[in-house]
Description:
Belongs to the SecD/SecF family. SecD subfamily. The chain has 615 residues and is an alpha+beta fold. The chain has helices at residues 7-24, 47-59, 81-95, 111-115, 125-128, 139-160, 182-195, 216-241, 266-274, 290-294, 347-358, 414-426, 443-496, 504-533, 538-570, 574-604, and strands at residues 31-39, 66-70, 73-77, 99-107, 122-123, 130-137, 167-171, 174-178, 199-204, 209-214, 247-251, 255-261, 277-283, 302-306, 312-316, 321-322, 326-333, 339-345, 364-378, 384-397, 405-409, 433-441, 501-502.
Amino acid sequence: MLNKYPLWKTLLVLVIVAIGALYASPNLYGEDPAVQISGLRGIPTDAATLDMVKSHLDDNNISYASIVMEDEQILARFRDTEQQLRARDLLDDNIGDQYSVALNLTPATPKWLASIGGTPMKLGLDLSGGVSFLMEVNMNEAINKAQESLIDDFRAGLRGEKIRYRTVKRVNDAIEIQFRNAADLASAESFLEKQNRDLLFQSDEDSLTLSVKMTEQKLKETREYALQQNITIIRNRVNELGVAEPLVQRQGKKHIVIELPGVQDTAKAKEILNATATIEFRLVDTDGDLSAALNGRVPGSSQLLRERNGQPVLLKKRVMLTGDHIIDAGSSFDEYSRPQVNITLDSAGGSKMSNGTKNNIGKPMATVFIEYKPTDRVDANGNTIFEKIEEVISVATIQARLGKTFRITGAGSQSEAHNLALLLRAGALIAPIQIVEERTVGPTLGAENVQLGFQAIMMGFGLVFLFMLVYYRAFGIVANLALGANLVMIVGVMSMIPGATLTLPGMAGIVLTVGMAVDANVLIFERIREEIRAGKSVQQSIHQGYDAAFSTIIDANITTLIAALILFAVGTGPIKGFAVTLSIGIVTSMFTAVIGTRAVVNAVWGGKRLDKLSI
């Protein structure tokens, strides 16, 4: 029989639409004003902190809907923004030194819906508010680190070739290597030139010194590498923060733009993004005199540092391994329930660690945490001067030859171990960065954008709705039902996909999808009209109308989908937001405009003897 779906197919269409409506429903519940409290610099938030927050709010008669601990953070929900702002100011004044107190908007989704994965759509920076950073890469420090790396390579290479030298040190913008005799100087110059074609070598036989400088091309490549590598590392850190649809891209020669939609805890974001943290492994100088070092007589090959408890430690300057070789890091607890960081190295790092520890079994090795912090001082070029802070986080005896995997202890808390693992896993920044501009988009402006975008969608939907109703009569009602189902399914799919984010350009993509969805029905309905005018029966006209128009609809939508996928692949920011909703809208409109309307038409008109059709 023509135009009759089996019952299972009709039920399947209804189930798919119902699932879309179910996962779109969390967007109807809105959000609760909230305050988020999280520890700074590894300070944990625990039950005692929760009680302290409750006590402050109760003592000052600030009513709250609930206060819970979620993901090592405290979330206090309020019934209105007035109580939210009062609570933020109160907590910021009383506990703000050790904790980050930030405004937040928390979904008010019912627990039963949240338990099956129902969450509202994530909104972009232009709709939900958030924070935008403009960060500047310190290129001078990038060059310095590159030169320090060259010094280590020169020393290792010369030792490997058994070429004796006196010193290798940095002098201004050059590296100077001093030798004992002219023969060693000549051998070293020949060897190093072959290994480093992109460096400039100049020897002085009178002083037995070889001077090495970077070429302009090498300097340019170093700066470009520092910028690109910092962008990659910052992207990794943003992913670790769990921010949906962030924007990280370069701007000019030494700037990076970072947009974090929906982020209210700017202190936590800045702590993670701005940290230039890495670690070094060095041997403890057991032969040196610690008392003499404390009095200012530090051996030239050693350095005096301190542990976190203030205990002085005399270390060898020579670095066994740096954090650049770390490919993975995670936090856990050791057999004594102390926080630890488990580290995995790349193959080169594993070899260095193995060679560095094989002859030092039984000797103490220190793990040094290094961080660069911006100061208020600037250099002659106007660049911010960074202060290098070195701290010993653990001293342990090497029990056996280490390889690619090992662990370090000494973190003050599990939260601090987690943050250190995050930084090491995401990578150490090639050069320090500083925030030169911070811009916050408030939730009020975002709400206005949401309202205007929603009005645009409703106006487009309403005009199309009226046109289809007037021009195609009863079949126009079917098309409008499919159009409404399409909008619901777009919202449902956007809510289900973890990485999908709705932006203002994304709303434009939804408006475009509304027109494209109706376009498929126009093709089908006009073909049905042509078949009826050609003298065919109503049932044959419906059947032929859907079948004949199907190939045209598929061709048109697939070409548009390909274009949308290309936009998503190569675009960033607003372009990607537009491509996301357009791609989802094309797929859902194919389902609702073709399969969905066919199911309704078959259920209402299919298999019946009809002389005319309201189309």
